[in-house]
Amino acid sequence: MQLEQSFELPNPPATAWPAFKDVELLVQCLPGAALTGPAAGGELPLRFDVKLGPIAAGFVGSGRVSFDDAAQGGRFEGSASDRRTNSRVKGAADFKLVAEGGGTRVTLRVDYSLTGALAQFSRGAILRELASALTAQFAANLALRLHAVAEPVESVEPTEPAEPAARDAPAAVAAPVVAAAPLDARPLLMLVLKASWQRLLGRLLRRKV
């Protein structure tokens, strides 16, 4: 199945493109997604948690991303599975950044397959609406992060010289990987049902005229 999405960022491609090459930043902006460890051999260990009513799924897998600096685009390929629902997803996503006005338009084209118990949610227009809502959340999170990076940092005058580190001070320990909060799809589903109802009501009213 194929999905096509697009969204706008207020930043020009010159500042938006470096953010797209920061995989950790992109994962942090996607609700429900998390990196579960460092990349090994180009493979990114990923996890995506989603909850829809009584159904909770945690897809665990890996992906690989490639970039084209000249075209300011790239491609992500990956696969993951959820043991609880015996579901598996595999797909690829192509993305491209294009200057538009003073900002950037990002286009996405996703080609994927979903098998198992959750395959029922891959049919019809509901998934497209859910994808649109998820893309909007991702775009909003990314725009906030880009805005925070663009803000100038105020200089602070040091008050006292820093004390020298102790000779026997222990080495810094890397922070553990923290899983992201699962994506609760219920609010998104309610928006989808509301939009579908409004379209249906509009069609009925036009037929009566």
What does this structure look like?
The protein has four helices and eight strands. By secondary structure, the protein is α+β, with helices and mostly antiparallel strands. The longest helix is centred in the middle third of the chain and has 26 residues, at 125-150. The two termini are 37 Å apart.
SSE arrangement, N to C: EHHEEEEEEHEH
Number of strands: 8
What would the average pLDDT be, to the nearest integer? Answer: 78
Tally of helical segments = 4
**Portion of residues in helices?**
25-40%
Shape: globular
N-to-C terminal Cα separation, in Å?
A: 37 Å
Strand content: 25-35%
Low-confidence stretches: 161-180
Largest sheet: 8 strands, mixed
Counting helices, strands and paired strands, the structural category is alpha+beta
